[in-house]
Specification:
Arc Repressor Mutant, subunit A, 13% strand
């Protein structure tokens, strides 16, 4: 059974979990804390499980089997703390969701399946993109839709795959 930790006023992860109506379990704190520490990368369920097992020193004794992790990331996604995207291979990828952002633009390579954020590349148009996302969300909300998130993905072949150069192994997707 998961242990619920006492609320600590100084811990932002506890505050986030509480604000979204989630229990402050050791497992929830571990998963959310790890994803918040790696905000620019999205991870599959398997990649996240491997990363958390590798970081076992942070929370020794936390039993985080694949089903527990799946349920936890599902809950974190439902309340808007994580962004879940399905890539071109139909694989779900999870990423910490900044509270002020409705859409995180990204490029998905259909060859190597890397997922690259486009925030820097779209810097000049970022305000327009955010404005369009906010407008769409407000319109849908006015029509009665609830619990929405938006995904902005460009799919194609990355420069490395197009030129035949391959990225180094172990580059996070």
């Amino acid at each position: 059974m998961a242990s619920i930790l006492p609320l600590t006023e100084t811990d932002p992860i506890d505050a986030l979990l509480s604000a979204h109506g989630l229990r402050r379990t050791t497992a929830a704190r571990l998963v959310l804390g790890w994803l918040l520490a790696h905000p620019d990368t999205s991870y599959t369920h398997a990649q996240l499980q491997l990363a958390l097992v590798g970081d076992d020193a942070e929370a020794p004794g936390v039993a985080l089997d694949r089903v527990t992790l799946y349920r936890l990331i599902d809950r974190l996604t439902q309340v808007g703390l994580l962004l879940c995207r399905v890539d071109a291979s139909r694989v779900r990828r999870y990423q910490a969701m900044p509270t002020s952002v409705h859409a995180i633009p990204h490029f998905e390579c259909q060859s190597c399946h890397r997922d690259s954020p486009l925030a820097g590349a779209l810097r000049a148009n970022g305000v327009d993109l955010e404005r369009a996302a906010e407008s769409a969300m407000q319109t849908l909300k006015a029509l009665g839709y609830q619990g929405m998130s938006m995904d902005f993905a460009v799919r194609g072949v990355c420069a490395d795959c197009a030129t035949g150069t391959t990225p180094p192994q172990g580059v996070p997707a």
